[in-house]
Design goal:
Structural class of chain A: alpha+beta
Number of domains of chain B: 2
Structural class of chain B: alpha/beta
CATH architecture of chain A: Alpha-Beta Complex
Number of domains of chain A: 1
CATH topology of chain A: Sufe protein. Chain: A
Strand content of chain A: 15-25%
Largest sheet of chain A: 4 strands, antiparallel
CATH class of the largest domain in chain B: Alpha Beta
CATH architecture of the largest domain in chain B: 3-Layer(aba) Sandwich
Largest sheet of chain B: 7 strands, mixed
Helix content of chain B: 40-55%
CATH superfamily of the largest domain in chain B: Type I PLP-dependent aspartate aminotransferase-like (Major domain)
Radius of gyration of chain A: 14 Å
Number of helices of chain A: 6
Number of strands of chain A: 4
Helix content of chain A: 40-55%
Strand order of the largest sheet of chain A: 1-2-3-4
Oligomer: heterodimer
Chain lengths: 139, 407
């Protein structure tokens, strides 16, 4: 599936939730299910610092594709990280670089991606695109 | 039970009627900033509507009105703090500004290589970093009074840190993270045995208790207007005349000079020596209105009411499974910091926000203190004069709800 197909599917999934609580319960669930990053990658150089919660992000390259694994110490952040990975992981470097992540706004989670939100998520998206750029430059 | 018309007080703060995410706002982030009473909000509009003009300069009518109103605040502050003289009250733009002013000007005059500055383990970054910068510049050493697990200063270690090399003791009155109320009188009198001046960070004390700078015998006392129901962008540095007179000016510019020639400038007298440039006039004037408001309610009433509310909140939260209080000092004020076992404070903050409850989460600008407890941060609720038991009930059940969702 393309990045936008996945985004559209997520938007549809979220449209079934009737209130914020159901939505957050789902995000928390995703956070709990997110395969943990290999402990070996939970190092300071892979740490993205937010003021409040921390995110670890690791990228593997498979051909022209980037495969992300990640973790966070806060469960809601982790759930959101999980959504980002669903959308971007396994996609081509080119597509990741050009991705417009409209689904966050559409599912009503815009505030979590505001640059003033201190949860490290904005920096994570930036970092994901940087990994894609690095791979793209190699090819 | 004291007479305290909470209904009336709440009706003076228009923002308290706000709804957040469909819920009535429960504002428990007062340690970060307090809400403003209508009197202050109106005073801001009045200033711009009727007397806006620069202070200490013009001979024209409006400038005179603005100057008078601005200086009335200084007079009110002198009374509010029981300072000996009006000119010991320096208007700053906040606590951070006041502490930096002392670190810079006192430091330049009195701190040399191998001298020592004493702070405590519970300081806000703004009472750590200015001293660190001074120490780096001067080759001086920063010494830290440790705390026990309840979050109280170790006074035995404090005594042992005092000697003739120490040039300043700078500690907070009330910890913004733990709520600990420190024994300031004792801290000051011990330091004075060695003729060491003491600066008190009063940012979390000034809105909760009566401050008498002469009775405390503090040498410097800094606080912010916006944490005491006043506008943002104005603060106060009280300093004893004997120290302020010996300190060089902070910044150069208008208002702080007596006479300027290209060969030499002579400086204005106190307090203007430390007030270069056009100040935040509107905020300065309206801080006076905030003081009037506090005086009308009465700080001793506020202190009693808030202490009772803090006690109520602490008991209620204690029943929540897995709660761990950070900061359990005998003497506390306004602040409850806690963690829920197995839950990140950020997550709790997000869910509380959804339920209309405003708290602060994170390290509260006290990273060394978080390291001391080995935690990433806390959830902090901080109480002000307008909070109620009903709000505490909503808060406690919101925390329970958050825990059940997150665990």
């Amino acid at each position: 599936m393309t990045i936008n197909e996945i985004q559209d599917e997520l938007i549809e999934d979220f449209s079934f939730f009737e209130d914020w609580m159901a939505k957050y319960e789902y995000i928390i669930q995703l956070g709990k299910e997110l395969p943990l990053i290999d402990e070996a990658y939970k190092t300071d150089n892979l740490l993205i610092k937010g003021c409040q919660s921390r995110v670890w992000l690791h990228a593997d390259y498979a051909g022209d594709r980037v495969v992300f694994t990640a973790d966070s110490d806060a469960i809601i952040t982790k759930g959101l990280v999980s959504l980002m990975i669903k959308v971007l992981s396994g996609q081509s470097a080119q597509d990741i670089m050009q991705a417009d992540l409209y689904f966050i706004d559409a599912i009503g989670l815009k505030e979590h991606l505001s640059p003033t939100r201190a949860n490290g998520l904005v920096s994570m998206v930036k970092q994901m695109k940087l990994y894609a750029m690095a791979l793209n430059a190699k090819h | 039970m004291i007479h305290y018309d909470i209904h009336n007080i709440r009706s003076d703060f228009p923002i308290l009627k706000a709804k957040v995410n469909g819920h009535p706002l429960v504002y428990l982030d007062n340690g970060a900033t307090t809400q403003k009473p209508l009197a202050v909000i109106n005073a801001i509009t009045d200033y711009y509507t009727h007397i806006n003009s620069n202070v200490h300069r013009g001979v024209h009518h409006l400038s005179q009105l603005a100057t008078d109103a601005y200086e009335v605040t200084r007079r009110k502050l002198k009374e509010f703090l029981n300072a000996a003289y009006e000119h010991e009250v320096i208007l700053t733009n906040g606590t951070t500004h006041g502490i930096n002013l002392v670190a810079s000007c006192y430091g330049e005059q009195f701190v040399n290589e191998d001298d020592e500055i004493v702070i405590s383990a519970m300081e806000h970054h703004s009472n750590i970093v200015p001293w660190q910068m001074l120490c780096e510049k001067r080759g001086a050493k920063l010494k830290v009074i440790p705390i026990n697990d309840r979050g109280e200063l170790d006074m035995d270690v404090y005594r042992s840190l005092l000697n003739d090399r120490v040039k300043m003791v700078s500690v907070t009155y009330v910890s913004n993270t733990l709520g600990t109320v420190n024994p300031i009188k004792e801290i000051v009198s011990l330091a004075h045995e060695f003729d060491i001046p003491v600066l008190i960070d009063g940012a979390q004390a000034i809105q909760h208790m009566q401050i008498d700078v002469q009775a405390l015998d503090v040498d410097f006392f800094a606080f912010s207007g916006h944490k005491m129901y006043g506008p943002t962008g104005v603060g106060v540095l009280y300093g004893k005349e004997k120290w302020l007179d010996k300190m060089p000016p902070y910044q150069g510019g208008g208002d702080m000079i007596k006479e300027v020639t290209f060969a030499k400038t002579t400086y204005n007298e106190l307090p203007f020596k430390f007030e270069a440039g056009t100040p935040n006039i509107e905020a300065g004037i309206c801080l006076g209105t905030a003081i009037d408001y506090i005086n009308t309610v009465g700080l001793s009433n506020i202190a009693l009411y808030e202490a009772e509310l803090l006690n109520y909140a602490t008991n209620l939260l204690a029943d929540i499974e897995g709660i761990r209080f950070i900061g359990e000092a005998k003497e506390k004020c306004s602040v409850i910091s806690f963690l829920i076992e197995g839950v990140h404070p950020y997550d709790v903050g997000v869910i509380l926000d959804k339920l209309g409850v405003a708290v602060r989460t994170g390290h509260h600008c006290t990273q060394p203190l978080m390291d001391r407890f080995g935690i990433p941060g806390t959830v902090r609720a901080s109480i002000a004069m307008y909070n109620t038991r009903d709000e505490i009930d909503v808060f406690a059940s919101a925390v329970t709800k958050a825990a059940s969702m997150l665990l």
